[in-house]
TrEMBL record, chain A:
<dbReference type="Pfam" id="PF03460">
    <property type="entry name" value="NIR_SIR_ferr"/>
</dbReference>
<keyword id="KW-0534">Nitrate assimilation</keyword>
<keyword id="KW-0274">FAD</keyword>
<keyword id="KW-0285">Flavoprotein</keyword>
<keyword id="KW-0349">Heme</keyword>
<dbReference type="GO" id="GO:0098809">
    <property type="term" value="F:nitrite reductase activity"/>
</dbReference>
<dbReference type="InterPro" id="IPR012744">
    <property type="entry name" value="Nitri_red_NirB"/>
</dbReference>
<dbReference type="InterPro" id="IPR005117">
    <property type="entry name" value="NiRdtase/SiRdtase_haem-b_fer"/>
</dbReference>
<dbReference type="GO" id="GO:0015980">
    <property type="term" value="P:energy derivation by oxidation of organic compounds"/>
</dbReference>
Automatic annotation (TrEMBL), chain B:
<dbReference type="GO" id="GO:0051537">
    <property type="term" value="F:2 iron, 2 sulfur cluster binding"/>
</dbReference>
<dbReference type="InterPro" id="IPR036922">
    <property type="entry name" value="Rieske_2Fe-2S_sf"/>
</dbReference>
<feature type="domain" description="Rieske-like [2Fe-2S]">
    <location>
        <begin position="10"/>
        <end position="114"/>
    </location>
</feature>
<dbReference type="GO" id="GO:0042128">
    <property type="term" value="P:nitrate assimilation"/>
</dbReference>
<dbReference type="GO" id="GO:0008942">
    <property type="term" value="F:nitrite reductase [NAD(P)H] activity"/>
</dbReference>
<keyword id="KW-0534">Nitrate assimilation</keyword>
<dbReference type="Pfam" id="PF13806">
    <property type="entry name" value="Rieske_2"/>
</dbReference>
<dbReference type="InterPro" id="IPR017881">
    <property type="entry name" value="NirD"/>
</dbReference>
<dbReference type="InterPro" id="IPR012748">
    <property type="entry name" value="Rieske-like_NirD"/>
</dbReference>
Amino acid sequence: MKKQLLVIGNGMVGQHFIEQFLDAADGDSWEIRVLGEEAYAAYDRVHLSEYFERGQAEDLLLADPAFYQGNKIQLHLNEQALKVDPQARKVTTSKGSYDYDQLVLATGSYPFVPPIEGKDLPHCLVYRTLDDLDAIKASAEGKTKGVVVGGGLLGLEAAHALQKLGLEASVVEFAPRLMPVQLDAEAGKLLRQKIEDLGVKVYTEKATQLIRPGDEHRLCMEFSDSSHLETDLIVFSAGIRPQDALGREAGLKLGERGGILVDNACRTSDPNIYAIGECAIWNNQHFGLVAPGYQMARTAAAAINGDSSVTFTGADMSTKLKLLGVDVGSIGDAHVTTPGAQTYRYLNEIDGIYYKLVVSEDHKKLLGAILVGDNAPYDTLLQYALNGIDLPEQPEALILPSNAGGPPALGADALPDEASICSCHNVTKGDIREAMNDGIMSLGDLKTTTKASTGCGGCAAMLKTVFENELESRGVSVDRSLCEHFSYTRQELFHLVQVEGIRSFEELLEKHGKGGGCEICKPTVASILASCWNEHVHEEPHVSLQDTNDTFMANMQKNGTYSVVPRIPGGEITPEMLIKIGEVGKKYQLYTKITGGQRIDLFGATLDELPLIWEELIAAGFETGHAYGKSLRTVKSCVGNTWCRYGVQDSVSMAIFLENRYKGLRSPHKIKMAVSGCTRECAEAQSKDIGVIATENGWNLFVCGNGGMRPRHADLFATDLSDEELIATIDRVLMFYVRTGDRLQRTSVWLENLEGGLNYLKEVVLEDSLGLGAELEAQMQQVVDTYQCEWKTAIEDPSKRKRFRSYVNADEPRRARIQLVEERGQLIPVRDITEEEVA
Amino acid sequence: MNSAHLNAAQWHPVCRLDDLVANSGVVAWLDAQPAALFWLPDQEPAIYALAHYDPLGKAEVLAHGLVCESQGEWSVASPLYKQRYRLTDGQCLEEESIKVRTWPVRLVGAEVEVYY
C-alpha cells in the first residue's frame, strides 16, 4: 500500500510544495491528495489585479489542469478541511475524511479586518482571492468611489485594482505614511506624491471609528479626528493573519501572536505534520512573501523524503515591486536598527527619485536600502547586502545619477558562488556555474534546467549578466552569425542594407558575405530588402531569393498545390464579393474554408491556375492577402459600435484602416492584429502582435501578444490614444521590430529578448529616448506609399506571368497528376494509406 | 522486357535557355515524369536536371525550392520540409539513404537538352 501524503491548501506555496515533492520523491511510493477550499486550482496571487484586465481565472492558474492528472494527484477543490486528528492521523473535510501518513498544512493567511463598528455592512470587502475580486467587481458595477483601508503593499495593489474598475480610489492608512513597514518618512512622502499624481487619494493618520450607511454614497466612514469620507465600497487590506485554525484545534504549538510553529525542517510540534508559507511561524517570525514560502515548501518536501540537508533558517524579506507603475524597493535593515549604522541619501524631487543606503559602522558593508521612483540599482544593491560584499570606496556612487561618473559596476565576477540569483527558486551563482559545467550553453536551456528566472522574473537581467560572464570566462564567444554566408545578425544586416543603400542580395553578399547563399540568408535578405525598398518580389534581382510561397504568392500545401487567400480587411465583406469568391472556388474546384483571421482560404490551386484565379478575383475588386508572406496577415475586428449595444468605438473602420495601412509590410515574421470595440474583447486583441481595444476616450494599445504554439498575453502599452496617436505609436513599434527583430522571431519573443523589455520599448516609442521616432514613422510611411498589390502587378506583366507555368514544355494540366478525393462535398488530397491506418 | 522499354536513351530538347530562371528552378515534362531544371549562370556546370518529386515530402515540388550553397556544394531545399538535395547527384544531405534521380543535361545553342 502506498503511503498517504495529504496537503491542505492549494495556494502558491502549496502548489510549489507539490512540484518540489514530485521532483524529490520516488513517485510510486506516495499517493498524493490535495485539498483546496477555493473553486480554483492554485493561481498567481501576486498578480491578482491582472484578473480585472484579463477577466479569466484560467490566465492566472499556476499549473496546466493536466498537471494534476498527469502526476496522479487527487485534487479536491471546493472542499474545506474541518478537523485534523493527529492521533488517528485523519483529516475530516466538508465532504469526507482521509487518512494520512504525512500531512502538510499550507493554509495560508486571511485578511485582517480591524474591529470597526459597521465592518460587516454590505459592500465592506477584502482583497485576497479570486472570489473576493468577483465580489469587488460586482460591488463596483455602476458605482464611482472606492476606499481601501490599509496603505501597505497589498492595500496599494487593491487601490490599483479599484482604479482598473473605473472607480475613484482612496487609500486610508493608520500610520503617518504609506508602506510603513518597508519605507521611511521621506520615501513614504515621495510615494504618496507619486500615487496622488496617478489619481489615488491618500489619507494618512486616519483611524476609522465607525462605518455607517452614507448619504450620497452607500457608506460613510467616520474617523477619530471627526472627519468623514463617503464611498460606495470599502476594501480592507490592513494586513494578514496566519490561517492557523486547523493547527490550533489539533493542539499544535502556535506562535505568540498566532501561526503554527515550525522548526528548521518546517515540521510542527507533531512529527507527522508540516506547515509552510503564511500559516507558519518560524523563530517567532511570519513571512508574508512568496519567496520564503517557496523556500519552506522545498524544505518540507526534502524533509518528508528523508533529506535533512535542506533547511529553513529564515529568509530575506527584501522586496522590489511596481505599485501603480511606481518602482518601490526595500532591502534588509531599511529602518537603520543596527547599532552604529549610518546612511547615505539621495532625493531628487524633480524626477521623483529617492534612494537610501544603510551602511555598517565601518562603512564597508551594505545593511539595507530604500528605493522609490526607479529600481534600477536594486539588483546590485541586493547582491551587496545579501553576500556581504565590500562596498566601493565611495558607496554613494551606487545611488548617484550616472552623469556624476556612474556607479561602479558590480561585475558578476565579484559575486560568490553562494550568491542567490533567483530567490523564487533558490538558484545560486554556483548552481548556474554547475549547470554550465554540465554543458548548458544557452540562456533558454539554463532557465529550463535551473528554473532560474521562471518565478517572478525579477532576476532576468542579473541571470543574463551572470550567464554571459560565465560564457566569457570559459572563452566562449557567442556566435550570432545568421548562417555560413553572413557573420552578422539580422539586425546588423538590416543596418548595413539601410545605411549603405544596398538594393540586392548579390551586392550584400559581395560586400559583406561569402559563398553563394542558402535557404536561410536568401529569404532573410529578401525580407530586409522589401522592408527597406519595397520592390516587387518578382523583380529580377529578388526572384531567386524567395521561399516558394513568396515566389508564387500563394501557400504551398502538402501535395504541392497552393492555397489562395484574398484580403478581406477587418473581415468585412459584401454579399457580392462573397458570391464572387464562391464562384471562383466552384469554377476551379477549390476546397474552401473560413480561416481564423476572418477571411476565406481556397485550397488546391495548381501553379498555372493561380494567375487565372487572381485575374478573376482582382477584377471583382480583391487584393492579395499576403497569407504567404512574413508580413501583416489580418486585422481581426468585432462589429463595434456600428451594431453592438456595448461597443464604444467603430472597431471595424479602425481595423480596415490598419489593415490597409500595414498590408504588404515585410517583417521578421508574420504579424497579426485585432481591434475590439469594447473591453469585452470579442476580437481577442490581447493574443495579437498588435491589439487595439476601444475605450470611452479612444484606444488602448496592447503589443507583442501571441496565440499559437507558445501563447502570450499582449502587454498594455499605451492608453486612451486618439486615432492619430494610435497610428503613430503602431508605426514606431512595428518599424522598430522590423529593424531589430531576429529572423523568424515573432514580436512576443522579440520583446522577451529585448534588453530592458517592455519599459525599454516604451522609452523608445513613447518617450523617443533614441531620437528615432520621426525616422521610424517616415520609414513606415515610405512602405505605405510604395504599396502595390503584388498579384495585380504580376498578372499584368507577361514576363512575370511566365513564372506560373506548371511545365515549361507542356500544356498538360497539372491537376491530372494530383490525386484528389471527395469529402463532405469538396475535393481534398487523397489520404496517405499509412495515415489512414493510423487514424 | 518488351520492345517499348528498349528505346535507348537519347538527348531530347526540352526547352530554351530563356525558359529557365537564373539561380532557381522550373519544371520540364520528360516523357513519363517531371524533372526540375536549375540554372546557376555563374557555376560550371550551369544547368542541372533532378527529379521534381520529393520522396520525403511525397509530392512534386523540388523545382520550387530554394537553391543553396554550403561548403562550395550546391543543393535545392525542398519547399515542404526543407531537406536539401545535391544538384550534381540528387543525394539528400539530411538523409543518407535518400537520393533522387538526376539526368545529364546540356545546352546546344539556346536549346536545353536532357538525356533520357
